[in-house]
Amino acid sequence: MRLQLASWPEVQEYLTDSTGIMMPIGSTEQHGPTGLIGTDAITAEEISWRAGELVNALVGPTISVGMAHHHLEFPGTMTLRPTTLVALIRDYIESLASHGFRRFLFVNGHGGNLATVGAAFYEIYQEFRQAHGADAPALRCRVLNWWDGSKVRALSDDLFGSRLGNHATPSEVSVAAFAYPGYVKHAELDPPVAPTGRFYDARDYRRRFPDGRIGSDPSMATPAHGERLLVAAAADLAEAYRQFMNED
Q: CATH classification of 3-157+227-246, choosing from 3.40.50.2000, 3.60.10.10, 2.30.29.30, 3.40.50.10310?
């Protein structure tokens, strides 16, 4: 059930049985010549919705803009400051915690979010400790990348092998293509597999990876692959959510 499509009595009833919620978080950034700018938010959202159905979990609104400073040399990219994203996550959690939610599983579609999301969790814990002392609610917050599950990793390796890469990957482009088949893009990729390496800031990124890809060949992406990856990732996420909810 999606929070935005529920009524408040439905949420109240949900809380009598569960205090858990999934929170998709992604980014609005370039994904090479063929990847949608919204790929990271789309993938996290679609996978969360599917997993939520599998475990009867409520899914909150997607945080669609994340930490993407290093992509700003590519038109269309949007980013938040770390302090802004921390504040946003704090407000989301505090709002839901006031109604009785206690377990927050953030489903991440963009690796650049991880450090800031983790910092937000510690600020939340500290604030609740200071505000409530020994009576502070036992909040539990966790973030996981949708592509890290065993099922989706095995499938990605089988479908794409060494051409998966690190950014604008055929796996994420495939999932977005399955979600929005009318927006599949095509372009000549030169070289077919992008270079790899480190970078320092947005200008350095654009200099080293001029078309936005890192180590990937998204020409291998298809909506059919995306459907299989979505199913695998949702199964991984459903399993992780059950474990999260059953932890002491």
A: 3.40.50.10310
